[in-house]
Design brief:
The protein is α+β, with helices and mostly antiparallel strands and 266 residues long. It is built from seven helices and twelve strands. The strands form three sheets. A five-stranded antiparallel beta sheet has the order 2-3-4-5-12. A five-stranded mixed beta sheet has the order 7-8-9-10-11, with helices on both faces. The mean pLDDT is 85.
Length: 266
């Protein structure tokens, strides 16, 4: 996947021991398991080596880790050597200010590094919001960057027409900004409004929403944590995430991260 690159060794060796993705904290999915045993039978007393290679991938953001556990046994002297090799993906430098970046890659990048959402180009963030709603079954159109009359994305599903205002802000969204969206609903002839922000809403927003709903202006508020949940929901089980992984390249990039020896003669 484009947001990850291969390393010649694990930059953070402790990542190899994790059961969850260190970026988006999702459970890893094993996509490769291979066992090589040079011993002909379990009762064989000859020297032998057993290798178990595995590859896991995060089903949300696409991060991967590879491990290989090897056990070599010799009978003269009777010693076993244990070693673990590993490698994991490293996040690429990603130009979030570039509006030409593929939206799907921006979604994956934000899933892995949501704390960087504030530096995404505003236009790209609008495209990302539209893409998330498309994944949820809506037709989504991003309005013109200038002269949008207070609505950044128009959603349609059946007879429903929704106006979405997107604010990539660090500061809290004020009650006045929510009221402005109500006015934009009239101008854009929509029956419902959604306010998406990378931050949070000021205290009193819920009370304002209730008042606007009574007056016929239903508005839904989506703050940073809720949008992150939506972002993750659209990424679950994306099959292309698995298909794009070069399994052999991942396995060949592993380096030794642990070795120890044990004498079997007591």
């Amino acid at each position: 996947m484009a947001i990850w690159r291969y390393l010649t060794s694990a930059r953070e060796p402790e990542y190899v021991w994790n059961d969850d993705c260190p970026f988006c904290k999702s459970a890893l999915n094993r996509i490769h398991h291979e066992v090589l045993d040079t011993r002909k039978t379990r009762l064989s007393l000859s020297n032998h080596t057993t290798k178990v290679a595995r590859l896991w991938i995060c089903r949300l953001c696409g991060w991967w880790k590879a491990t290989e556990h090897q056990e070599s046994e010799t009978t003269r002297p009777w010693i076993t050597n244990h070693s673990t090799r590993g490698a994991c993906a490293s996040l690429c430098d990603f130009a979030l200010t570039d509006v030409e970046q593929p939206v799907q890659e921006v979604q994956r990048f934000l899933t892995a590094n949501y704390e960087l959402r504030h530096i995404v180009h505003p236009r790209m963030f609008e495209e990302t919001v539209a893409s998330v709603f498309r994944s949820l079954g809506y037709e989504a159109t991003v309005t013109a960057y200038s002269g949008d009359d207070g609505v950044d994305v128009i959603l349609q599903k059946g007879k429903e027409r929704i106006g979405v205002q997107v604010k990539r802000h660090r500061n809290s969204i004020s009650v006045e900004q929510i009221r402005s969206l109500a006015g934009a609903m009239i101008v854009n002839d929509v029956t419902k409004g959604i306010f998406v922000t990378t931050s949070k809403f000021e205290r009193g927003s819920a009370r304002t929403i209730d008042r606007l709903r009574v007056r016929g202006y239903p508005i839904e508020l989506i703050d940073a944590p809720r949008f992150f949940d939506m972002l993750k929901l659209t990424q679950i089980d994306a099959p292309e995430s698995f298909e794009q992984v070069d399994i052999q390249r991942c396995l060949s990039s592993m380096k030794t991260i642990d070795e120890h020896q044990r004498n079997l003669l007591f």
